Amino acid sequence: MVAREVARRRTFAIISHPDAGKSTMTEALALHARMISEAGAIHGKAGRRSTVSDWMEMEKARGISVSSTALQFNYRLDKTSSGVDEVNVINLVDTPGHADFSEDTYRVLTAVDAAVMLIDAAKGLEPQTLKLFQVCRHRGIPIITIVNKWDRPGRTPLELIDEISDRIGLTPTPLYFPVGIAGDFRGLLDRRTGKYIHFTRTAGGATIAPEELIEPEDALAREEDDWTTAVEESELLSEMGQDHDQEMFLAGQTSPMIFASAVLNFGVRQLLQALIELAPPPTGREAIDHTVREVTDAFSAVVFKVQAGMDSSHRDRLAYMRIVSGEFERGMVVTHAQTGKPFATKYAQAVFGRDRSTVDTAYPGDVVGLVNAMALAPGDTLYSGPKVQFPPIPSFAPEHFSVCRAESAGKYKQFRKAIDQLDSEGVVQVLRNDIRGDASPVLAAVGPMQFEVVTARMKTEFGVETSFQGLPYQLARRTDAESVDELNRQRGVEVFTRSDGALLALVSDKWRLQYIEKEHGDLTLEPLVAAAD
Ligand code: G4P
Fold it and tell me: Which segments of 136-203 are extended strands (E)?
């Protein structure tokens, strides 16, 4: 039972730079799964609800998605296009979509088995895509590449392919080649069958674009030079060895590529097909003691995100867990590995956008939100049956450091409580040292957006106005007790203890770091796990 559920599941995230079309693609995928009758119902502006809390106001004002959620849908592949005849369950875990960056974004990627790298045909690789790509590479997750917006003028297919190979060392192996240049998207050459898939536009791209499967001779007659160009360029790629290779894809060395238009719903079915046929189903996970919890073993899950105060109508704390093994049934009492305490899962929910629905059963690969999960923190393990504890999610190297103060001394107690709460949720990293004392801790973040989240939550949930004062440090290095005194004597360096006990030396810039490393070779200054390691 569990094995069959696992085999039909695929859990992935879309990594992209803002505006590349992630929301539009999410809608298009949901449309294909017929979850919504017309594209635009999930994220579309018209679909936005008007009753939103301050929190949501902030999200709306910046056009960002602070919440990280998972969309689950069923999809059955067309039998004619593959040998698979099974209703597949697709979990799309949403990565926060703002231009800035936070630890949440990284953590989400620990919950997926594959990533779809979505790039804009005119812009190619952009900074946020690159950062997220590095995290995927670090984790060894297979990546499918989507070149989106092919309905608009952009670069040539070969330019985009070269850019990806040259800049990030990932070799694209297009599954389909576009027929018609960017801006004149006629259809796709299926490189594996040699056939032509012709798309027909629908009004406003609101419904699935009808596809016509055409034999090569007829394609030539119909598209003439556009067809010949596609065939020639595709052959060129084959000569260079850029055909799909499942092993290389799973090893993260090559990336099946699809040209698409999310607004027109072109290439979207092809993405679903690639996910189902090529992306890996959930697999077991290695525990701290190096044993592997297999997917068919007793229930276990990892919390990868904790979130609170999202919405005034649901003011509570939600922990999102990704199921690693076994069957989850709502109401079962599981054990929280970190404390050994029982945890009742009466309020398990599937959450997407503003909507929540109760989850009754779930399987490996699925994401379930647990309500009022006050004791749970990112990286925690929940299990039933034989005990298991998975390794913690690495805390990523912070690059932004600020002193945080309560504006009013009278609110100090709430301020402390809030800091502890936000720390335990992993919203920011909290640093302390004896010199500064405890009154105004130093907060460390991967992206400055995390400080805004702190400000907003301090105000709405704890009624505390805060101010931030940036510190002139750019780097953090892990150090040890023996090095602390000497480091504190250095200019541009300050040592702190992070709440997980790690000693961190903050350094003003990389030149200072290089200087200290040269002059004091005996000091411990280890790089932290950075996303790009
Ligand atoms: P994001 O979540 O990655 O930030 O991007 P989003 O889907 O919001 O898309 C950003 C803009 O790009 C939107 O335009 C969207 O309509 C457009 N877009 C997305 N996919 C495609 C595509 O395949 N082709 C074309 N031509 N455009 C695409 P907007 O002007 O910001 O909003 P709207 O007025 O269209 O809603």
Answer: 143-148, 171-174, 176-179, 187-190, 196-199
Separation between Cα atoms, residue 189 and residue 532, nearest integer Å: 35
Q: Which of 14, 17, 22, 24 to mutate to test the pocket of ligand 1 (most atoms within 8 A of CB)?
A: 24
N-to-C CA span, the chain: 39
Taking the model in full, what pTM does it have? 0.84
* 138 known ligand binder: no
> Chain-centre distance of CA 106, in angstroms?
6
- Of 271, 22, 26, 23, give the one whose Cα is nearest residue 129: 22
Ligand 1 centre to CA of 287 (Å) is: 41
151 in Cβ contact with 185 (< 8 Å):
yes
Question: Which residue matches tokens 């598209």?
Answer: 223
Q: Any binding-site annotation on 96?
A: yes
Is residue 280 annotated as involved in ligand binding?
Answer: no
Q: What is d(CA 424, CA 360) in angstroms, rounded to the nearest whole number?
A: 28
Residue ranges with strand state E in 289-395: 292-293, 300-308, 317-325, 328-329, 333-336, 341-344, 348-352, 355-358, 361-362, 367-371, 381-383
Q: Under DSSP, is residue 171 helix (H, G, I), strand (E, B) or coil?
A: strand
Instruction: Decide: 408 and 462 in contact? Cβ < 8 Å.
Output: no
Residues with CB under 6 A from ligand 1: 16, 18-24, 97, 148-149, 151-152, 261-263
Q: How far is the CA of 214 from the centre of ligand 1 (A)?
A: 30
pLDDT tens across the length of the chain (533 residues): 899 999 999 999 999 998 999 989 988 998 888 655 444 444 443 333 322 233 344 434 433 333 446 788 888 887 555 565 678 999 999 876 555 567 877 888 999 999 999 999 999 999 889 988 988 998 899 999 999 999 999 999 999 999 999 999 999 999 999 999 999 999 999 999 999 999 999 887 778 889 999 999 999 999 999 999 999 999 999 999 999 999 999 999 999 999 999 999 999 999 999 999 999 999 999 999 999 999 999 999 999 988 765 555 545 677 889 999 999 988 899 999 999 999 888 766 665 444 555 667 899 999 888 877 778 889 999 999 999 999 988 777 888 999 999 998 888 999 999 999 899 888 899 999 999 988 889 999 988 888 988 998 899 888 999 999 999 999 999 999 999 999 999 999 999 999 888 999 999 999 999 999 999 999 999 987 654 43
3-class DSSP state of 334: strand
What lies within 8 Å, CB to CB, of 529 at 6+ separation is: 394, 395, 396, 397
Comparing CA positions, the residue from 402, 400, 408 lying closest to residue 459 is 408
